[in-house]
Fold each of these.
Amino acid sequence: MAQNARAYIDIETTGFSPRDDELTVVGVCLEQGSHRSVIQLYEETLSRAALVDVLSPCTALYSYNGTCFDLPFIRAKLRVDLAASHAHYDLMHNCHRCGLYGGLKVVERRLRIPRKVKGVDGFMAVRLWLDYSENGNRQALRKLLRYNAEDVRNLIHLRNRLGVD
């Protein structure tokens, strides 16, 4: 993929504390022109080297609440400072400037950005991971990955709706 690609990033964890909880999935949607691809790192593929490699063609990185959650968690768990290596745009702040408050799902509903994966939020994402990791439930993993993929894809729609470059 050519340089100057955009990357949209979202993580799944087992809780809010980078010190006490696990980083379970890092989802990235790479966008170069009209080409988009989702890469998800988890289990043995979840490493510093893999994340750096995935993001290597990107100059711009977009998240929702990434400044306070995603990027610090990644820095603590994978020892990579994405804010230092990429121009990072936290779309939550753009939402606030437009009077849009709440989590990503709330903002999506207000902007009529549709979702296919129903009934999953951050709490359910933790439960899906635990069902997979403790019980081997592959269906729970597939649902978690579909949820995460939709999160990163919807960040593109959110950026476009907000008119963010």
Note: The chain has a mean pLDDT of 96.
Amino acid sequence: MKLKYTLGFFLISLLLLPTSCKKLREITRFDITTVSYATIPSGGIVNLPFQIFTPDIETNSAQEFETNKTEARLVRAAFLKSLTLNIHQPNQANFDFLRSVEIFISAANLEEKRIAAQTDIPQTGLKTLSVGTDDAIDLKDYIKGDKYKLRVQAVTRQLPGSDVTIRINSRFEVEANIF
């Protein structure tokens, strides 16, 4: 009789296991979003790459980890899922002047990595540009820290009439164990 109950419990456990694992994965995935700004100067050289550096970008990761019932040491992976550039100033500007853009991430004691790029930007009056991300690069060490920096490397097809400030919106998907 005990064998029947044990076998029945074992079979029910096996049936519920896939849904339990799926629930656990849902619980341990969350997003961290950051916003930063960079200014593309009106003076410069056309068709040659130039660099723009953002100030330190606060990750607020400790707070995000706490909210999601985890901590930095339990983070398994973090991937950049989206990076969007928006014209912030001047209002009449658009991305027609931009030929291509590459985005690199760096942090203290970590090597710089290219995380996003867009070539052949169309001249269609875009004010928002979704930049293609390399979502196979694990960025957990950058996200676990308090801050990181972005370097924007751009090539213009023409010089903008005035300085153009862009807003950089980044969304990282974090996978972590819960405590």
Note: DSSP finds three helices and nine strands in the chain.
Amino acid sequence: MSKNKLYLFIIVACLTGFSYLFYSIHYSKSTSLSLCMVKNFTGYPCPSCGTTRAIQLLLKNNWMASLQMNPFGILVALLMGVLPLWIVLDTITKKETFFNNYQKAEAIIRTKKLAIFLIILVIFNWIWNIKKGL
């Protein structure tokens, strides 16, 4: 993926995430709308179910409840906060630090042992979400 496509993808993904977070904080209590297609079709939560609620708990400075809701929430909140700023800084300074680090991280994550370990973590999180009844 080119640098520009990656930066655009990350910015659009973060803006979409911020928009949904804003919506969920201010309007979701009046509707039972769920964006999770897995849960809508199967009745079971997906591995990322509860991430938005976990971020909301983080915003209320309730770290432990956030971690219990879904550990992905902390990771997603961190990424949504850091990545757009890093991309803007790269754009202003005309550097490619984010793109270069992304390529290095992608190469590391693609190693077989780490990829298997991360997949196992996602599966455990999914099982935990199902057991919690999210």
Note: The helical segments are 3-26, 37-42, 51-59, 63-69, 72-93, 97-109, 112-132.
